[in-house]
Amino acid sequence: MPMPWFLLSLALGRSPVVLSLERLEGLQDAARCSPGLSCHLWDGDVVCLPGSIVSAPGPVLVPTSLQTELVRRCYQETDCDLCVRVAVHLAVHGHWEKPEDEEKLGRAADPEPEEPRNASLQAQVVLSFQAYPTARCVLLEVQVPAALVQPGQSVGSVVFDCFEAALGTEVQIWSYTQPRYQKELNLTRQLPALPWLSVTADGDNVHLVLDVSEEQSFGLSLYWNQVQGPVKPWWHRNLTGPQTIPLNQTDIVPCLCIQAWPLEPDSVRTSICPFTEDPRAHRNLWRAARLQLLPPRGWRLDAPCSLHAQATLCWQAPSRGPCQPLVPPLPRENVTVNVSSWEKMQLQLQECLWADSLGPLKDDMLLVEAGGPQDNRSFCALEPSGCTPLLSRASTRAARLGEQLLQDLHSGQCLQLWDDDLGALWACPMDKYIHQRWVLVWLACLLFAAALFLLFLLKKDHVKGWLRLLKEDIRAGAAATGRAALLLYSADDAGFERLVGALASALCQVPLRVAVDLWSRRELSAQGPLAWFHAQRRRTVQEGGLVVLIFSPGAVALCHEWLQDAGPAPGAHGPHDAFAASLSCVLPDFLQGRAPGRYVGAYFDGLLHADAVPALFRAVPVFSLPSQLPAFLGSLQGPRGPRPGRLGERAEQVARALQPALDSCLRTPGTAGMGRGMGPEAGDRT
């Protein structure tokens, strides 16, 4: 069946590592053989009649093995078919028979029977090919010279071009001679199926779709296709069945190519480069490019794709504004960095000479020396308004300090950054001039500090009262604006809910701004658990707070249920169970590595074993309460929390508030044993 050229070229790929199929021109079949042999292909197909096996009258040619290779037969420039090339390896079978009188008399026979021993061998080799719905038989005549006739030895091979077949079909090949001296050879081969490979985009979401059968195994590779140099493999997997694979938006660059192939012999590889004209890919390319200065005057540009760049010197003010061209300009340099034929772009990356030439960023003045005779060289200083001549009457800093800067330049206090036939670039330090300006400012500050100290001595009692009031106001403000904490738990029973309520009330006195579903039942009923959790989680994260996952036997069971069955059945939990509703949002944060810094875990002593917490949630700190209360409170309050002594006092207050509710839970029949039943043997099934 003819295959459109664009589909076949997709199968062959565009990467140097893709299997490239040989191209055959024309419609005619052909045969060729090893050096020393002669062969001829009969015109047209023949009837496949193997016949019965007969005895060899002496040495004969027989096929010993079959070998196949995929090629493409092209009728026009854009019209090619997949074709199977078959190579038949031949060997000499049998021996010359001795005359009877030679065996009886034990002497040499008459010289006349020796002639056949030096004769060449000729054979008619039949190739039978079947691939639904076609079947063909061809006849090859092969002649071997007498010099190559050695019984039991291989003499070479004959190659037939070729049998047409479709991708994904099963082909069967037989080979025998006429007459047939041995059982025919046979070979069955499954031709590779071409995976359907496509890329879909929905806004910022990009997906790679491979539509193959469920039992089909195939390899998938993502690589950077460089015009110069070897291909850079980036990602490789062996997969099975249809797949939809998300691609990270920031990883998409113009030279990103995708390659897929069945994990089978003679596999044809599919390779596409779908992002060559994507504007987002070009933006990502420039974001990924890195410009590095190399001493003394070299530079290097690293980018995942080939590009054309232009390098030029520019300057940047200490305020980190845009990099401005030098005036007068120094020469530009056209450079090729893995030149790509798809587009020529001007380099937009910036790297300042301060980074490697002057160490840390300084407030230096850049001077441009224009070319000319030694006595007629001019200097100007680079400023945001342009390049100011040093001996001008402008009202800029460079003009006011022009004579001093020229003296610094001639006395060797300036550092030369660049020098060529057209000009030079100098950096002159400005520290001593800046220090002179700030002397009066420091003197004014010292006088103001002395006046404040004198006022403090005169009004000491009034100042103490004012400081006391200020301290109380600060404490009240801290209590009102404590760090946010969202508590999530599984309502195992009424006693456990009372224990969580006691913890929430104690944390409010730390102080923390605590959100828990126990205090928001009306909002839960109006919004639903999932919407309520979304709103609370967003508010907590935006304010720099933490989400606290309180693990209990019921919470651990819910986590395992989600991890194993992709979520519980609808309606399996109460209408106010925010923990069950929140797992659909909490689990992706842990699976995608976004949990650290946003979540902490906790469980109560005696109610749950430490090893019962699923391994997935141990990516964040998990505390045992009340034994690890100081560390727990320190994590909740963050780096701005109280000193260690004050933190210990607050931990004791929270422990005293928790202990009655915890003792009540431990006394409840069957509750204390739940913690021991959720140990390591219970199965951390993550």
From TrEMBL:
It comes from the Eukaryota. The chain crosses the membrane at residues 438-458. Residues 1-20 form the signal peptide. Residues 482-634 form the SEFIR domain. GO terms for molecular function: interleukin-17 receptor activity. It is a single-pass type I membrane protein. Residues 665-686 are annotated as: Disordered. It is found in: Cell membrane. GO terms for cellular component: plasma membrane. It holds the Pfam family IL17_R_N. InterPro entries: IL-17_rcpt-like (IPR039465), IL-17_rcpt_C/E_N (IPR027841), SEFIR_dom (IPR013568). GO terms for biological process: inflammatory response. Keywords: Cell membrane, Disulfide bond, Glycoprotein, Inflammatory response, Membrane, Receptor, Signal, Transmembrane, Transmembrane helix. Its main location: membrane. Homodimer; disulfide-linked. Heterodimer with IL17RA. Heterodimerization with IL17RA is independent of the cytoplasmic tail. Associates with non-glycosylated IL17RA constitutively. Binding of IL17A and IL17F induces association with glycosylated IL17RA. Forms complexes with 2:1 binding stoichiometry: two receptor chains for one interleukin molecule. IL17A homodimer preferentially drives the formation of IL17RA-IL17RC heterodimeric receptor complex, whereas IL17F homodimer forms predominantly complexes with IL17RC homodimer. This is Interleukin-17 receptor C. It comes from Equus caballus (Horse). The lineage of its organism: Eukaryota, Metazoa, Chordata, Craniata, Vertebrata.
